[in-house]
């Protein structure tokens, strides 16, 4: 994955902030910095910028680049509409 940050859509950012405000637990799918798929339940806590890159901090303390988010619950993140839902249907 390119290391250059790709700013996210403003409307998507607003949705993320709303989730954090409501402390709503979601099913999150994203790529970590090693391009590994990560997924599971998560709650957004806050957002910040470091070195011109926007991050979300989860309630667990984990930090995720906003442009690495693939899907939240059943909604694909902007730019990831072609990616499948990686949840197991088990």
Q: Which SSEs are present, and which pair or pack?
A:
Blueprint: H1 10-22, E1 25-31, E2 37-50, E3 53-58, E4 63-65, E5 69-72, E6 75-76
Antiparallel strand pairs: 1-2, 1-5, 2-3, 3-4, 5-6
Description:
This protein has 90 residues and is mainly beta. It has a single domain, classed as SH3 type barrels (Roll). The protein has 1 helix and 6 strands; from the N terminus they run αββββββ. It has one helix at 10-22; strands spanning 25-31, 37-50, 53-58, 63-65, 69-72, 75-76. It has a 6-stranded antiparallel β-sheet. The radius of gyration is 12 Å and the shape is globular. The mean pLDDT is 92.
In summary, what is this structure?
The longest helix is centred in the N-terminal third of the chain and has 13 residues, at 10-22.
- The fraction of residues in strands falls at 35-45%
The CATH C-level name is: Mainly Beta
Report the end-to-end length measured between terminal Cα atoms: 29 Å
Helicity range? 10-25%
* Discrete helix count: 1
Properties at a glance:
about 90 residues, mainly beta, SH3 type barrels, six-stranded antiparallel β-sheet, 1 helix, about 15% helix
